[in-house]
Amino acid sequence: MKRTFLALVLIALAGAACSSSNAIAPLPPQSAAPAQTTAPAAHRDGAGQYKRVTVAIKSAGSTYTFPAFGNFKGKGSYTKNDASGSATLQITNSGPNNLLGVPVSATGAVQLYFEAQIAGAYEVTFQNVAKTMTLTSTMLKSSSTYAIAVYLWNKQIEYYTAGTPSNGTLTFQTPFSGLQMSYYTPIMIELLQVGSSTPTSTPYPQTLYAAYNDQVYGGVYAYNGDQFGSGPTNFTSLPSAFAAGVDDVQNLYVSSSSGYVEEIYPGGGTFTYDQSVARPSSVVAYAGYNPAIGVANGSGISGYAQVLTFQQGVDQSTPFTDPNMVSVASVAVDGVGNLYAGGTNNQNAPEVDLIPSGGSPSNLGLQLTGTPTGLALDQSGNLLVAQSNGVAVYAPGQTAPVSWIGSYGQTPFALAFGNAGNWLYVLYDGIPCYASCIDVYAYPAGTIVGQFGLSGSNEYYGVAVSPRVPLFNPNAMRRKHPHFRYWTNVRRTRLH
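The structure corresponding to this sequence follows.
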């Protein structure tokens, strides 16, 4: 992701900037703008409105001491960049004061405002790599979750989770990464308290699973899925664990990059599926108490996208080859056995195909920004696709997304519903997390309600929640709404 900040330097703005090397240039007038926008007097030294630090920008990246003010202090950082030798970065801690008059976010309570701008260079681009910032304050609550909102010209251009603090210290991805800043064009950054890490209990206790893909120390971590920010409660060793899924009776299925799928029973014991399994990138259980198991087999052994089907407890696979795709990365099913497969087609473009129960595959024709790394269906039959830029939501029959969730410009690797379909768990392997994390969103609103930080390196690729939210049943929907049109009702291009 590259957040490009428009290099609009008005003559009047430049003149104001040159009049005082420490002054943040005022924003242009906005319709119905807050009074702070036209109150430059708030920037006067000694007025108790802010604390400021200016540092020379090092092209290799570096750290700086965040100015202490408003009960916040900390350590900031920025990534490797293309700054010239004279470029500087000015950081202003405004505490509770909204000096630039940016809108107050509707997703949480603002705890801190801080501004940033560059000087001595027309433009500076910070590379998109993981680098952290820490803030310490007695105002930070260990029972709460936080987020970062970034504004330019009174418009929010970035929003990402900051997680949960530990002992009054919050560590999160620095805003100065994957970022292009222009001369004397200030940005405002808000630290938001967005939710509690101890939310109201769900109707039933939930277990959250995260698959850790390490060749030696890999396995599945289990978490209390209702306790945001909590650490793992259990670990099951499984070298090269990759994808995860659960069935209707809480059996856990985990694929291994080594070429097998392990079924783990809730009461103890396991069963291994490995016949013809080559590169299992995704696993899903069909509906029922003795379900079939679908395994996305990468490019399989034929050079084409392949899905293997096992009957539960029987290590004998039935292969299905999708001739239009060379590899399959993710699969999902609905309550009547229709399967959705996301991957890369023969033209090296991303694609999602529908494979009806007992039928032939067809291309849904979705407008995609990257390889579909995760698929899920909500309780209305909408198809969610994890891809670059976030999670896109497609209504049945629509090729363009009707909404986006978590649009960070960073590809999520997996997703799973919880809390009766009211929460969406999305796994990120890197930015916007410090390392890896699972963000929890209210669904369909898309607001962040919590986060789980994942220990270890950036090698998490699978997520599952148990008990599983019941699979969407289009037949039941039609009984309630006779005119409901589902993905299987829409005319598409059939593959040959």
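Residues 1-46 have pLDDT under 50 and may be disordered.
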